[in-house]
Specification:
Layout lengths: L3 E5 L2 E6 L2 H28 L8 H8 L4 H8 L4 H8 L3 H9 L6 H11 L3 H4 L2
Antiparallel strand pairs: 1-2
Length: 124
């Protein structure tokens, strides 16, 4: 990279570089910033501060399906197994999954623990 140095009062004030070099520097800076963001996310994920949601679950949630049902299916549990793990009845879980009942914070917390997901994933 060839730079033209412009001085003011005998001290370097500006560096003028070819435009192609300027674009390459911007690209390198963006790459470094992106790498930093990825590293921060990776660290947050490793320490449990970030949580990944499979694309299929996101798509089906956007189509209006119940988060509790989707995560139960994703974890390979029956309604009865999840109800037992959460300490609730199967009919109550069924009503939550179908949208007939909201579920209390305590109940949703128990379901979230049983599914090993953050409460925010289940709460609207």
């Amino acid at each position: 990279m060839k730079a033209q140095i412009i001085e003011r009062d005998g001290k370097p004030e500006y560096a003028v570089i070819p435009y192609a070099d300027y674009l390459r520097m911007l690209e390198l800076l963006e790459d470094k910033a992106d790498a930093g963001i990825v590293a921060e996310f990776h660290e947050a994920y490793k320490t449990g501060r970030e949580f990944l949601i499979p694309a299929e679950i996101v798509r089906r949630e956007l189509d209006g399906e119940s988060s509790a049902k989707l995560w139960r299916e994703h974890r390979g549990l029956t309604q009865q197994e999840l109800a037992d793990k959460a300490g609730i009845s199967k009919p109550y879980l069924s009503q939550i999954e179908s949208g007939k009942r909201q579920g209390t914070v305590e109940t949703l917390t128990a379901i979230a623990r049983a599914l090993d997901v953050p409460l925010e994933v289940l709460a609207d």
